[in-house]
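Open question from group meeting: does this chain pack into something compact, or does most of it stay loose? Before anyone orders reagents, we agreed to write out a predicted structure and look at it together. Recording both the input and the output here so the notebook holds the full record.
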Amino acid sequence: MARTAVMGAGSWGTAFALVLADAGNDVHLWGRRAELCRAINETHENADYLPGVELPEAVVAHADPAEALDGAEVVVLAVPSQQLRVNLQTWGASIPSDAVMVSLMKGVELGTHMRMSEVIAELTGAGPDRIAVVTGPNLAREIAAREPAASVVACEDVSVAQRLQKICHSGAFRPYTNTDVIGCELGGTTKNIIGLAVGVCIGLGFGDNTKASVITRGLAETARLGAVIGADPQTFSGLAGMGDLVATCSSPLSRNRTFGEKLGQGMSVEEVTAQTRQVAEGVKSCQSVSELAKMHGVEMPIVEHVASLIAGEMDPATLVKALISREAKPEKD
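C-alpha coordinates returned:
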Protein backbone atom coordinates (compact mmCIF):
# COMPACT_ATOMS: atom_id res chain seq x y z
CA MET A 1 0.00 0.00 0.00
CA ALA A 2 2.84 2.41 0.75
CA ARG A 3 6.61 2.69 0.87
CA THR A 4 7.43 3.17 4.53
CA ALA A 5 10.58 3.86 6.51
CA VAL A 6 10.88 2.85 10.16
CA MET A 7 13.70 4.79 11.80
CA GLY A 8 14.83 2.74 14.75
CA ALA A 9 15.47 -1.01 14.95
CA GLY A 10 14.76 -1.54 18.63
CA SER A 11 11.99 -3.85 19.80
CA TRP A 12 9.05 -1.50 19.15
CA GLY A 13 10.38 -0.19 15.85
CA THR A 14 10.99 -3.73 14.64
CA ALA A 15 7.58 -4.93 15.85
CA PHE A 16 5.86 -2.05 14.07
CA ALA A 17 7.84 -2.80 10.90
CA LEU A 18 6.34 -6.29 11.10
CA VAL A 19 2.84 -4.78 11.46
CA LEU A 20 3.38 -2.59 8.40
CA ALA A 21 4.66 -5.54 6.38
CA ASP A 22 1.69 -7.70 7.44
CA ALA A 23 -0.58 -4.90 6.23
CA GLY A 24 0.99 -5.15 2.77
CA ASN A 25 3.49 -2.30 2.79
CA ASP A 26 7.05 -2.02 1.51
CA VAL A 27 9.07 -1.55 4.72
CA HIS A 28 12.59 -0.13 5.07
CA LEU A 29 13.98 -0.40 8.60
CA TRP A 30 16.90 1.80 9.67
CA GLY A 31 19.28 0.68 12.39
CA ARG A 32 22.38 2.54 13.53
CA ARG A 33 24.54 -0.62 13.62
CA ALA A 34 25.53 -2.09 10.26
CA GLU A 35 26.07 -5.56 11.71
CA LEU A 36 22.51 -5.68 13.07
CA CYS A 37 21.05 -4.57 9.74
CA ARG A 38 23.10 -7.17 7.90
CA ALA A 39 21.90 -9.90 10.27
CA ILE A 40 18.25 -8.85 9.84
CA ASN A 41 18.54 -9.05 6.05
CA GLU A 42 20.33 -12.40 6.12
CA THR A 43 18.26 -14.16 8.80
CA HIS A 44 14.96 -12.21 8.78
CA GLU A 45 15.27 -11.90 12.53
CA ASN A 46 16.28 -9.10 14.90
CA ALA A 47 18.03 -11.38 17.37
CA ASP A 48 19.21 -8.49 19.54
CA TYR A 49 15.73 -7.16 20.36
CA LEU A 50 13.13 -9.73 19.24
CA PRO A 51 14.86 -13.11 19.23
CA GLY A 52 12.84 -15.94 17.76
CA VAL A 53 10.51 -13.67 15.77
CA GLU A 54 10.62 -14.22 12.03
CA LEU A 55 10.31 -10.97 10.09
CA PRO A 56 8.50 -10.82 6.74
CA GLU A 57 10.67 -10.59 3.64
CA ALA A 58 9.07 -7.19 2.96
CA VAL A 59 11.18 -5.78 5.82
CA VAL A 60 14.58 -4.68 4.53
CA ALA A 61 17.12 -3.16 6.93
CA HIS A 62 19.54 -0.30 6.14
CA ALA A 63 22.43 1.17 8.11
CA ASP A 64 22.35 4.25 5.86
CA PRO A 65 19.41 6.47 6.90
CA ALA A 66 19.24 8.11 3.46
CA GLU A 67 18.69 4.71 1.85
CA ALA A 68 15.89 3.87 4.27
CA LEU A 69 14.21 7.24 3.73
CA ASP A 70 14.54 7.35 -0.05
CA GLY A 71 11.06 7.69 -1.57
CA ALA A 72 9.25 7.05 1.72
CA GLU A 73 5.61 8.11 1.86
CA VAL A 74 5.37 7.41 5.59
CA VAL A 75 8.30 7.82 7.99
CA VAL A 76 7.91 6.12 11.36
CA LEU A 77 10.13 7.55 14.11
CA ALA A 78 11.07 4.92 16.70
CA VAL A 79 14.23 6.20 18.35
CA PRO A 80 14.45 6.91 22.12
CA SER A 81 12.59 10.15 22.83
CA GLN A 82 15.58 11.98 24.30
CA GLN A 83 17.58 11.16 21.16
CA LEU A 84 15.00 12.36 18.65
CA ARG A 85 16.45 15.85 18.27
CA VAL A 86 20.01 14.72 17.54
CA ASN A 87 18.75 12.08 15.10
CA LEU A 88 16.62 14.57 13.17
CA GLN A 89 19.54 16.97 13.09
CA THR A 90 21.64 14.18 11.57
CA TRP A 91 19.29 12.72 8.94
CA GLY A 92 16.09 14.75 9.06
CA ALA A 93 16.97 16.53 5.82
CA SER A 94 16.66 13.19 4.00
CA ILE A 95 12.97 12.84 4.92
CA PRO A 96 10.92 13.44 1.76
CA SER A 97 9.15 16.81 1.88
CA ASP A 98 5.72 15.26 1.42
CA ALA A 99 6.13 12.29 3.78
CA VAL A 100 3.89 11.90 6.80
CA MET A 101 5.91 11.41 9.98
CA VAL A 102 4.57 9.04 12.62
CA SER A 103 5.91 9.10 16.17
CA LEU A 104 6.07 5.87 18.15
CA MET A 105 7.97 7.67 20.92
CA LYS A 106 6.62 8.30 24.40
CA GLY A 107 8.39 11.11 26.18
CA VAL A 108 8.71 14.81 26.88
CA GLU A 109 12.06 16.35 25.95
CA LEU A 110 14.35 17.33 28.79
CA GLY A 111 15.07 21.04 28.94
CA THR A 112 12.50 22.17 26.38
CA HIS A 113 9.49 20.27 27.87
CA MET A 114 8.33 19.63 24.31
CA ARG A 115 6.25 16.67 23.23
CA MET A 116 7.74 14.58 20.43
CA SER A 117 5.36 16.00 17.81
CA GLU A 118 6.53 19.48 18.78
CA VAL A 119 10.18 18.48 18.36
CA ILE A 120 9.37 17.02 14.93
CA ALA A 121 7.57 20.20 13.89
CA GLU A 122 10.41 22.42 15.07
CA LEU A 123 13.19 20.51 13.32
CA THR A 124 11.40 19.61 10.07
CA GLY A 125 9.07 22.57 9.60
CA ALA A 126 6.21 20.14 8.96
CA GLY A 127 2.63 21.21 9.62
CA PRO A 128 0.17 19.24 11.77
CA ASP A 129 -1.18 17.45 8.68
CA ARG A 130 2.20 15.70 8.31
CA ILE A 131 2.72 14.70 11.95
CA ALA A 132 0.95 11.76 13.59
CA VAL A 133 1.26 9.53 16.64
CA VAL A 134 0.66 5.81 17.16
CA THR A 135 0.10 4.86 20.78
CA GLY A 136 -1.82 2.45 22.98
CA PRO A 137 -1.40 -0.85 24.86
CA ASN A 138 1.29 -2.16 22.49
CA LEU A 139 3.92 -4.27 24.24
CA ALA A 140 6.40 -5.01 21.48
CA ARG A 141 6.88 -8.72 22.18
CA GLU A 142 3.13 -9.40 22.02
CA ILE A 143 2.71 -7.30 18.87
CA ALA A 144 5.58 -9.19 17.23
CA ALA A 145 3.89 -12.49 18.18
CA ARG A 146 0.79 -11.20 16.36
CA GLU A 147 -1.36 -11.39 19.46
CA PRO A 148 -4.59 -9.36 18.97
CA ALA A 149 -4.09 -5.71 19.91
CA ALA A 150 -5.68 -2.32 19.35
CA SER A 151 -4.04 1.07 19.12
CA VAL A 152 -4.70 4.72 18.29
CA VAL A 153 -3.50 6.66 15.25
CA ALA A 154 -3.70 10.35 16.11
CA CYS A 155 -3.35 13.30 13.75
CA GLU A 156 -5.00 16.71 13.75
CA ASP A 157 -5.99 16.06 10.12
CA VAL A 158 -8.56 13.28 10.31
CA SER A 159 -8.03 12.29 6.67
CA VAL A 160 -4.35 11.66 7.36
CA ALA A 161 -5.24 9.62 10.45
CA GLN A 162 -7.63 7.55 8.33
CA ARG A 163 -4.98 6.96 5.68
CA LEU A 164 -2.48 5.81 8.30
CA GLN A 165 -5.14 3.64 9.88
CA LYS A 166 -5.45 1.70 6.62
CA ILE A 167 -1.69 1.46 6.20
CA CYS A 168 -1.14 -0.24 9.59
CA HIS A 169 -4.35 -2.28 9.89
CA SER A 170 -3.30 -5.93 9.84
CA GLY A 171 -4.93 -9.20 10.81
CA ALA A 172 -3.83 -8.81 14.43
CA PHE A 173 -3.40 -5.05 14.80
CA ARG A 174 -6.53 -2.89 14.92
CA PRO A 175 -5.96 0.90 14.90
CA TYR A 176 -8.56 3.52 15.81
CA THR A 177 -8.31 7.17 14.72
CA ASN A 178 -8.14 10.21 16.97
CA THR A 179 -7.44 13.90 16.40
CA ASP A 180 -6.20 14.58 19.95
CA VAL A 181 -2.44 14.45 19.44
CA ILE A 182 -1.76 16.23 22.75
CA GLY A 183 -3.77 13.79 24.84
CA CYS A 184 -2.39 10.73 23.08
CA GLU A 185 1.20 11.86 23.56
CA LEU A 186 0.66 12.84 27.19
CA GLY A 187 -1.03 9.53 28.02
CA GLY A 188 1.82 7.59 26.45
CA THR A 189 4.42 9.59 28.34
CA THR A 190 2.95 9.62 31.84
CA LYS A 191 2.03 5.93 31.79
CA ASN A 192 5.73 5.10 31.82
CA ILE A 193 6.23 7.17 34.96
CA ILE A 194 3.22 5.60 36.67
CA GLY A 195 4.58 2.22 35.56
CA LEU A 196 7.79 2.96 37.43
CA ALA A 197 5.80 3.79 40.57
CA VAL A 198 3.77 0.59 40.29
CA GLY A 199 6.97 -1.38 39.80
CA VAL A 200 8.42 0.14 42.97
CA CYS A 201 5.32 -0.97 44.90
CA ILE A 202 5.66 -4.51 43.52
CA GLY A 203 9.35 -4.58 44.39
CA LEU A 204 8.51 -3.56 47.95
CA GLY A 205 6.10 -6.50 48.18
CA PHE A 206 2.78 -4.63 48.05
CA GLY A 207 -0.26 -6.20 46.41
CA ASP A 208 -3.09 -5.42 44.04
CA ASN A 209 -4.81 -2.78 46.17
CA THR A 210 -1.68 -0.67 46.12
CA LYS A 211 -1.15 -1.17 42.39
CA ALA A 212 -4.76 -0.29 41.58
CA SER A 213 -4.56 2.83 43.73
CA VAL A 214 -1.40 4.08 42.02
CA ILE A 215 -2.78 3.32 38.55
CA THR A 216 -6.04 5.15 39.22
CA ARG A 217 -4.49 8.18 40.87
CA GLY A 218 -1.83 8.26 38.18
CA LEU A 219 -4.52 8.51 35.54
CA ALA A 220 -6.11 11.36 37.51
CA GLU A 221 -2.79 13.21 37.47
CA THR A 222 -2.48 12.72 33.71
CA ALA A 223 -5.99 14.04 33.14
CA ARG A 224 -5.31 17.12 35.29
CA LEU A 225 -2.26 18.08 33.25
CA GLY A 226 -4.05 17.22 30.02
CA ALA A 227 -6.93 19.55 30.84
CA VAL A 228 -4.51 22.46 31.22
CA ILE A 229 -2.44 21.87 28.07
CA GLY A 230 -5.38 21.30 25.73
CA ALA A 231 -6.06 17.56 25.61
CA ASP A 232 -9.51 16.02 25.13
CA PRO A 233 -10.54 14.46 28.49
CA GLN A 234 -12.11 11.49 26.68
CA THR A 235 -8.72 10.42 25.38
CA PHE A 236 -7.61 9.32 28.84
CA SER A 237 -10.44 6.81 29.18
CA GLY A 238 -9.49 5.16 25.89
CA LEU A 239 -6.65 3.11 24.46
CA ALA A 240 -4.10 5.93 24.58
CA GLY A 241 -4.89 6.61 28.23
CA MET A 242 -6.26 3.84 30.41
CA GLY A 243 -5.44 1.11 27.88
CA ASP A 244 -1.76 1.92 27.65
CA LEU A 245 -1.53 2.58 31.39
CA VAL A 246 -3.02 -0.81 32.31
CA ALA A 247 -0.74 -2.70 29.92
CA THR A 248 2.39 -0.96 31.20
CA CYS A 249 1.53 -1.34 34.87
CA SER A 250 0.28 -4.93 34.62
CA SER A 251 2.83 -6.67 32.43
CA PRO A 252 6.31 -7.95 33.33
CA LEU A 253 7.15 -7.22 29.68
CA SER A 254 7.02 -3.50 30.50
CA ARG A 255 10.53 -2.05 30.75
CA ASN A 256 9.34 0.75 33.05
CA ARG A 257 7.50 -1.51 35.48
CA THR A 258 10.45 -3.90 35.58
CA PHE A 259 12.85 -1.00 36.20
CA GLY A 260 10.68 0.16 39.10
CA GLU A 261 10.52 -3.34 40.57
CA LYS A 262 14.29 -3.52 40.74
CA LEU A 263 14.42 -0.14 42.45
CA GLY A 264 11.87 -1.37 44.96
CA GLN A 265 14.03 -4.43 45.61
CA GLY A 266 16.94 -2.21 46.59
CA MET A 267 18.97 -1.70 43.43
CA SER A 268 20.19 1.79 42.53
CA VAL A 269 19.21 3.65 39.37
CA GLU A 270 22.76 3.21 38.09
CA GLU A 271 22.73 -0.55 38.78
CA VAL A 272 19.42 -1.09 37.00
CA THR A 273 20.45 1.09 34.06
CA ALA A 274 23.70 -0.86 33.66
CA GLN A 275 21.85 -4.15 33.23
CA THR A 276 19.00 -2.78 31.10
CA ARG A 277 19.56 -3.17 27.36
CA GLN A 278 16.73 -0.91 26.24
CA VAL A 279 15.61 2.52 27.41
CA ALA A 280 12.96 2.80 30.12
CA GLU A 281 11.52 6.11 28.91
CA GLY A 282 9.94 7.06 32.23
CA VAL A 283 13.37 7.31 33.87
CA LYS A 284 14.16 10.36 31.73
CA SER A 285 10.68 11.79 31.22
CA CYS A 286 9.75 11.90 34.91
CA GLN A 287 11.88 15.00 35.38
CA SER A 288 10.54 16.85 32.33
CA VAL A 289 6.90 15.96 33.06
CA SER A 290 7.28 17.02 36.69
CA GLU A 291 8.73 20.35 35.56
CA LEU A 292 5.99 20.75 32.94
CA ALA A 293 3.33 20.21 35.61
CA LYS A 294 4.91 22.81 37.89
CA MET A 295 5.09 25.30 35.00
CA HIS A 296 1.32 24.95 34.61
CA GLY A 297 0.52 24.86 38.33
CA VAL A 298 -0.72 21.25 38.18
CA GLU A 299 -0.27 18.93 41.15
CA MET A 300 1.20 15.54 40.12
CA PRO A 301 2.53 13.95 43.34
CA ILE A 302 3.22 10.49 41.87
CA VAL A 303 5.21 11.96 38.99
CA GLU A 304 7.00 14.34 41.34
CA HIS A 305 7.95 11.59 43.78
CA VAL A 306 9.19 9.29 40.99
CA ALA A 307 11.36 12.15 39.72
CA SER A 308 12.78 12.56 43.23
CA LEU A 309 13.44 8.81 43.45
CA ILE A 310 15.28 8.76 40.12
CA ALA A 311 17.29 11.82 41.17
CA GLY A 312 18.40 10.04 44.35
CA GLU A 313 16.49 12.41 46.62
CA MET A 314 14.05 9.79 47.93
CA ASP A 315 14.14 6.05 48.59
CA PRO A 316 11.37 3.63 47.45
CA ALA A 317 9.81 3.13 50.90
CA THR A 318 9.66 6.87 51.49
CA LEU A 319 8.02 7.36 48.09
CA VAL A 320 5.08 5.14 49.03
CA LYS A 321 4.82 6.56 52.55
CA ALA A 322 4.85 10.13 51.20
CA LEU A 323 1.99 9.38 48.83
CA ILE A 324 -0.18 7.69 51.44
CA SER A 325 0.45 10.33 54.13
CA ARG A 326 -0.60 13.26 51.94
CA GLU A 327 -3.49 15.39 53.17
CA ALA A 328 -6.86 13.63 52.72
CA LYS A 329 -9.22 15.34 50.30
CA PRO A 330 -12.28 14.65 48.11
CA GLU A 331 -11.52 12.32 45.19
CA LYS A 332 -12.81 14.81 42.62
CA ASP A 333 -10.12 17.28 43.72
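Observations to bring back to the group:
The beta strands are 3-7, 26-30, 59-62, 74-77, 100-103, 131-135, 149-154, 173-178.
The chain has two domains: 3-179, 182-324.
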